[in-house]
Write a structure and sequence with these properties.
Blueprint lengths: L1 H12 L13 H20 L3 H20 L5 H12 L4 H14 L4 H13 L8 H9 L8 H24 L4 H28 L2 E5 L3 E2 L17 E2 L3 E8 L2 E6 L4 E5 L3 E3 L1
Amino acid sequence: MWRFYSILIALLLSPAALLAEPVNLAPEALQARLEQANQAFQQALDTTDTESAQGYYQQAIDAYTQLIDAGVHNAKLYYNLGNAHILRNDFGRAILNYRRGLQLEPGNSRLQANLRYARSQRLDQIETSAQQAFMSRLFFWQNDLNLQTQVIIAVVFFWLAWAGALAHRFWRRGSWPWLTGGAAFAALLFAGSAWMIHTQNTATQHGVIVAEEAPVRKGNGASYALQFPRPLHSGAEFTVIERRGSWLHIRLENGANGWIRQAFAALW
């Protein structure tokens, strides 16, 4: 229990650990690359020629990706990159970048809306398992609050519970136990939610299919039989169970699992 609270306090007091790595390029070079990307994106929107538009979108993708490779990580950049991919009908990479953006800003409504749209366009519409659906309803705020905010809320309710307990000791009123119990329950709930996110970010890796098709097999090799009669398609999301060489053992949102080549997917 003390180890659990020490981790929560460390996360609260060390926000720098949640920030991106330092940028390696000069600010002038980064600004020029950003302007180049935005200009290419706008040219794609302005042109009436479909082939030219696809070329401009690719130029924007290349420039945005170079910024990320240089160490720039923010929700707006991932939003723009996701939009460029979705306009090229690359739903897998669009979902990948929207998810990465939401890791930085969970409550970003534009990222959430575009992620929902990208998911609605993918070929594989996989139902969420009952357990995952229940946890999503129980911790409904996880899509709107980042890890550090949830830690802060848990700590605030923790101290409110202690304050309520002390107040009840000196002023014995009937309402204090209810207030104390409510604050303690809220502290445990947000602490549990923060712990879940921390575990997902450190121990659980997520991914999405970015290839047009990804056959799923019963083992980590092409000689194994197919696990599913049809392959997964771009945009199908999963969690990684384990890795073996160039193969990933994955679990889909409905609980089904199998093996895919790592080259068919991107992880976050």
